[in-house]
Amino acid sequence: MSHAEKKITDKIAAAAAVAERLLAGRFRPDGGVGYTLGHCRRVMRLAERLADSPELAGRPIDRESMLIAAMFHDAGREVDTENHCDAGSEFVMKELATILDAEQLEKVAEMVRHHNRPVSAETEIIHDADLIDRIGTNFVWRNLYHAATHKQTLRQAWEWYQGVKDEWQSKYVNWAIFEITKKEIRRRADIMDAFYEEALRELECDLGAGAAYMQENQMTKQELGKAILKAAYLEGDFVLRSGKRSKYYLDKYLFGTKPQILSAIADEMAKVLPKATQRIGGTVLGAVTLATALSLKTGIPAIIARKTEKDYGTAKLVEGEWKPGEKVVLVEDVVTTGGAALEAAENLKKMGLEVLGVIAVIDREEGGKEAFAAKGINFQSLFTKTSLGI
Question: Which one of 3.40.1210.10, 2.30.33.40, 3.40.50.1240, 1.10.3210.10 gives the CATH number of domain 3-206?
Fold first, then answer.
């Protein structure tokens, strides 16, 4: 390898390391953790293969800048899903400023900005590489991730694919610039047909009973509310954490320790979780199972917020891995006045975390919502005392 070639390789490796550091733990609702990073890696490799194809032989290409731009072409979706091209360009200008000189930095940023509407040979290649992955690994990943998060059977996933495959294939072929891209899209579509058909045959033979069980045990939100009441609603004379007395009590440990109810709660919370969430926080002790269930459901790491620091071991106020500046959403079981969650939110802010909001299972409607609003904290609950008919 020549000195010039090694210098190019080193730059690409340095840029890839930046992408790894910034995108590896990011969550996308349509693909989970690592979805954007995986897609960008594959598009970079596909762009290199397209650039080496006979169809593009002889075209002048800035290979180094193109491969770096391919690695970051979708990074903007982590910042602004509505205008990801401009957001991605700004992302590159900020994060690669120490790796690339000013001229190349501007060039890479412009390639990212125009990868959806190509203006050069490099952006045409990135554009087509993106299309190839969309109908390949990216497509399968999204389909199976959607099926898993929504507890669909493989048959349901296959039926969804059957309903959209022709439209998607036709759309991507029409969008493709190069003939080699059109051929590769058709080839990958044929491979996926065979994959889903074989998977369905195996399902019918071996997993039919399990698939039926999954469908039968899915809960609607209305069914979840009834299940929580049945498991945890108690009547009597109770003193709440706020000091108030109540003639009824919702025992969080009775619904927060039942796997089926916990899984259904996580399903519903995942639907309202802000896209920018980087950590899911649970307060000791009742909300820990909720944070864990939601973390398993979404792939977003959980942290545990203590009321006070431990006087032994690591003596931490916040357990788990996190970095200052990360965005956290707190989950709670039952909110009365909101005191515990507000205290946890203040502690997290002091540690340098940004609290996006609080999601509770049940709001007793006794001042908690108003208390969060007074502190400027977004609050929402899956159920209220009124909606549960208490």
Answer: 1.10.3210.10
